[in-house]
Predict the structure.
Amino acid sequence: MKMGYKVIAPVGDNLKALFVGIKEFPTEKVFLICPSENIKDAQDLKEKLADFTIDVEIIEITGNLMEEMFKEFGKIVAIHPNDEIIVNVATGDRMSTCAAMSASFANGLKTFGVMGNQAMIMPIMKLSYYQELSENKLKILKMLKIEDYVSLKELSKQVEMSISLLSYHINGNYKYKGLKEYRLVEVMEKNKQLYIKLSEMGNLLLKGYIQQEKAPGEVKK
């Protein structure tokens, strides 16, 4: 018998939308991703969902909302297969909805919003963004920082790749996209040398990926 979904939902200003989603999608467990100021709302919601015998885990986040959202999505995806997870972005406020949508896109998760009393599936790719990145590209990202540029020559030594191979992974070619086209790195030319640093998007993706590596459960390939 098919089990219910694991639902990820940000805690914001439209929590009634969670129940609309539960009617549409059989729900086994709900992960409530919650800023500190909304903890009371999350606890009240947990009590209500107990009447439906639905397990609830409250995940309190502090600091940068977007970064924390990617981290928590990474932990959940590391434990549960993607096809068991669905994301209800309608429950959040403007910022948490945006963060949850971005994290859903990066992980290729089935996602829906709510209009009135109807759930609407969002057009998000089923393929995880992480699956588009080879081990070499991820290795390069892990060596970069968002604050500082590093020269192509120095980065070549750090990742133990030839400059030509490193350039390919950064710039891509006519057939395959590089990190630059994915907007995961920023490139600058100075004194006839190329310098690279991690972009904001690269930083977010990397945080989510690292959490998937750290979390227990199924090994990601």
In short: The first strand starts at residue 5 and ends at 10. Residues 5-128 form a domain with the Rossmann fold fold (CATH 3.40.50.10770).
